[in-house]
Design goal:
The protein is mainly beta. The chain has helices at residues 8-32, 47-51, 269-275, 429-440; strands at residues 36-38, 43-46, 59-61, 72-75, 85-91, 94-95, 102-106, 112-120, 123-129, 138-143, 145-147, 156-164, 172-173, 179-185, 188-193, 198-199, 218-227, 239-245, 276-280, 289-294, 300-306, 322-327, 342-351, 356-358, 362-369, 372-381, 385-393, 399-407, 410-420, 424-427, 446-454, 459-467, 472-475.
Length: 479
Amino acid sequence: MHQFHETKEIKMLKKSLLALAVSAAAFSGAVNAAAVITGFTPAVVALEGHQNTTIGNNKLDEVNMIGGADTIIVTAGTAYIVNDLVYVSVSGATFDTTIPPTFAFTTAGTGTANFVDFSDANTARFRIATADWAAADLLTITGFDLKTTGATTATNIKFGAKAVSVNPLIGDYDKAVDLSAFTFANQLSNVITPLNAEVSTGAGRAEFTTTGGHATLQDVLTVATTDTPTAVDSILVTKVTHVLTGNYSWVMDYDLAANGGDADGVMDAAEIAKAFTTTLGAPALGADNVVYTLNTALTTLTATHNVVGGVLNTSSGIDASVALQLNAVGNAKSGSTIFAPQSFALNTTVSNGTISYSLPEVTGGKFTLDGSTTNVAFMPYGANYAQSITVSNRGSVVGAITVDIFADGVKHSKVLTATSAANSVTNISTEVKDFVAEKFGATFEGNVSLSIVTNSPSVEATALYYAKSDADRVLVQSK
């Protein structure tokens, strides 16, 4: 009887067919399976604190996770074969590839896993080792480091996972649905009701008009701060510092004895407390308070808002709003000129007493004038000079003209006899020259600067001077 003997080629064919059958079975299971990522719930990160080098420094790790085990757990949805790879990916951030992840595994059999590498900054690769894994076996990432430079409130950091077979006929399988781990939000935001006073030329520019129901002796900047502590990188706000830059020269009136000051030429704390007052909104977890300081140049007002109460990462102690009130003594008390028009800039810094960070600069509002102003930086007077100063009124409103002259650190003001006639040009050269002579002497030789204010719109002043020796004419820049 003839006996059949398998050739080497037939044996190899059988092995190949068996491998394909196993692969097909695995692939069939993989198609219907899906790995699952668990171990955490999404955490909100305070963007300001996260970007601060002392707090978050644009980095996150497993310690920042909340809920569950504070780890990344990948539960296999199907069997994994020895030498297959498990890819754990991150989007919205990158892994710090200089620091290998720490991990553990839980398998029903003797299967293990090894960390292979970071195939790129978004992907960590692990290899199935020792023996095959069964469905529901676990790969647990217990430690990782993320880089988050450039994160915004739109950033959403998610983790994903998939298996990759060593068999090219299968390729990727058992892909998990990405799970959000971190989102970002601003902890603090301000809603500003800006300064909006109109300075009254009819009241000597020492107070405000009642336009729009405005108070005549006070303008108010209101800041409503929303503080929403988050689970990650929040700070417990204990102080909010508002710095409002502008020209506050008029508040020196509060240093005068007639207004209760000590007349020492310096704004002390008690005088500043009269010039600037506060109204606080509803208290959050205690009554806050505000303390003012003013620099000697009278250009920088600092309002330090001391916050009472608040619980770290949980609740804010910031009162509902803070109204910064700028006061004037008014024309009836011979108040000083309130500089207008001018704009104010507001810079806000928040602190927990040790760490601080700044919010973006915003406008603090502006003062307008119920008229027109032209400032002349330079005008020479003396025997060798002649002046030409005219006021052009393009509108239909007749306006009184006030001139301020500045020389040798002294300011003098006068309402001129001349008025700015409608739709015409008024020459005020002689009256201004006489005013200079009145205040500095008939033989005054020197330079002055001028501020020409007309309480009507659409007015512009033009200033020239002539050198009599050579008849040169110079148009003085004005604004």
